[in-house]
C-alpha cells in the first residue's frame, strides 16, 4: 500500500466530513466554468451583449476566484485542525513528517480533482440552460447558440488544479511546523471560561443602533457617503455581538435561576457558553454572508420586478422634453400622437429661465427659475404637497427627483441670496425648500428657483432667448405604447437627453437590474453554500469534544434521546442565530436601498428570505441528522 492508496482510503473513511466541502468546491468550479464559457463565446465578438453585462461577467469571475481561494483555504485548514490527533498518531506509529504531509496533500488533491471534474461536467450539462437564461435576461429574440469552449475547460481545470496544489503545499508547511506534543496538547487542553466586558457589550449595541439609525434616516443623495460608516459600524457591532453580547446573554440566563434549572436548560446553556464563544468568528462570517445574500438578491429582484412602479414614481409624466422657444415643435407632436393612436390624459407646459447663484454650499451654481403659478401646477398634478404663495422679493428652492422625499420646509431664519439672469443680478430672501418628484428628473428640472409671477414675467422679458427653455409633459392612458413617440422626439430634437419619460426610466431599470439579478442569484447561491458548509466544517472539527461530552452525559444517566436533543439545540442555534442576524441587517439595508419607492417593498424580501430559510432548513436537517448520528453512535 502506497501513500496515494492510503490517502484514498482516508477520503472514503472521512467521506461524511468531506461531502459538504466537495459539493461547495464543485459549485464554485461549476459557476466559474459557466461564466468563463460565456466570456469565450463568439457572441461577445459580435458585440450583441451590452458592455455593462460583460463587465459584470468579469466581476463575477473575479469574485468566484477570490472566494474560492479563501473558502477552499479555510476548508482545508478546518480539516487540518480536525485531523491533528490523527496526524499525531500516525507519527507515533512511525510515519515521518514528510510522509504524513504527502498523504494529507494526496487527500486534498483527490477531493479537489474530483470536485473539479464534477463541476466542469455539471457546467457542460447546464451550459445550454445557462445561455437560455442569459438570452431571456438580455431580451434577445433568438437564444444564444450553444458553443462549448475548450479554452474554458482548460482554464477552469488548470486554474483550480493549481489552486488545490498550492493550498495542499501550504498545508504541508503548516504540518511540518507542528510537533507531536503540539498535535496532542490541543485535545487535552482545558478551556478557559469565556468572559465579557460590559463596555464592549455597550459598544456593540451602540454600533448596531447607530448603524441602523443612520441607515433608516439617510437620504438617497447621501447614500454613497454613508455606506462606509454604516458598513463599518455593522461589522464592529456584529463581531462584538458574537464575542461579547452572546457571553453576556448566557451569563444573564445563568443568573435567572428559575429558567436555568428548568429541564435541560442547565446542560444546554452551560455548553452554549463555550460553543458560542468558540464559534464567534464563524457565526460572524456566516451572518455577514447571509445578510449580503439576502440584501443583494432582494434589492436586485425588487427593482427588477417593481421596475414599472419605480418608473411611474420617478417619471410622473409619460413623455417630457425641453426645447428652446425658437425651435418649437408646434403641431408635430400632436400629429405623432395621432399617428400612434395615443390618448392624452394630461398635458403641462411651462417656461424656465437659466440662472446662476449658490443657494446652499452643496447646491449647483447653475439652475433654472420657474414661476410660482407653474410650480403650483406641478405640485397639484404630481405630488400631494399644498400650493405655496410667494411675495415679491421672496424665492423658494426646489429639488425635484427621486433622491429626495416629498416635503416643504419653511426656512427660518430666512437667508438673503442673489441670483443672476443674463447680466442682471437680483437679491431675494430664501423662504422655503421644496423636495420630491415634481416632474421627470432632468438637468433642467432637477434644481429650480421659484419666484413670484410678476418677477418671473420681468425676467422673461429681459433674459436672453438662449437662456430660456420651454418644458413639456404629457400623460397617456398607456405609457408602454409611447416608445415610438419618444424615438421621434429624440430624432427631431437631436439630443436624446432632452427627452425623458416613464418608459425610458423603466427600460433603464430593466437593463441595469436584469443582469444584476441574474448575477446576484448565482453569487447568492455560492455564498449560501459557503455559509452552510462553514458551519458544517466547524461542527465536524468539534466531533471529538462532543463525543467526550456525550460519554460523560451517558455516565450521568442521560439517555441518548435527551443527549441528542441537547446537541440538536446547539446545532440549531448555530445555524439560525446567523440567519436571524442576517435578516435584521438585510431588512434595514432594503429600507435604505428602496429610495426609488415611496415605501419599502417587503413582498420580494419576504419571498427571498422564505426561500433562503427553506433551503437552510434542508441543510440544517441534513447536517443535524448526520452529525448527531456520528456523535451518538460512537
Strand content: 5-15%
Task: Quickly count the helices.
Answer: 21
Order of SSEs: HHHHHHHHHHHHHEHEEHEEEEHEHEHHHH
Could you list the spans in which at least 5 consecutive residues all have pLDDT below 50? none
Structural class: alpha+beta
Spatial ordering of strands, largest sheet: 5-6-4-7-3-2-8-1-9
Question: Over all CA atoms, what is the radius of gyration?
Answer: 32 Å
Oligomeric organization of the protein chains? single chain
Could you say how many structural domains there are in total?
4
Mean pLDDT: 79
The gross shape turns out to be: elongated
> What fraction, in percent, of the residue positions are helical?
55-70%
Distance between the termini: 28 Å
Q: Could you give a short account of the major beta sheet?
A: 9 strands, mixed
Tell me the number of strands: 9
Quick description:
The chain has 21 helices and nine strands. The protein has helices at about 5-15, 15-40, 50-80, 85-90, 95-140, 150-175, 180-190, 200-215, 225-255, 255-260, 265-280, 280-305, 305-315, 330-340, 370-380, 455-460, 485-495, 500-540, 545-555, 560-595, 600-630, and strands spanning about 320-325, 345-355, 365-370, 395-400, 405-420, 425-435, 445-450, 470-475, 500.
Please give a handful of descriptors for the protein shown.
634 residues, alpha+beta, 9-stranded mixed sheet, 21 helices, 9 strands
Can you give a write-up of this model?
The chain is built from 21 helices and nine strands. The protein has 634 residues and is α+β, with helices and mostly antiparallel strands. It folds into four domains: 189 residues, no CATH class; 69 residues; 168 residues, no CATH class; 133 residues, no CATH class. It has a nine-stranded mixed β-sheet, sandwiched between helices. α2 packs antiparallel against α18 and α20 runs antiparallel to α21. It is elongated. The two termini are 28 Å apart. The relative contact order is 0.11.
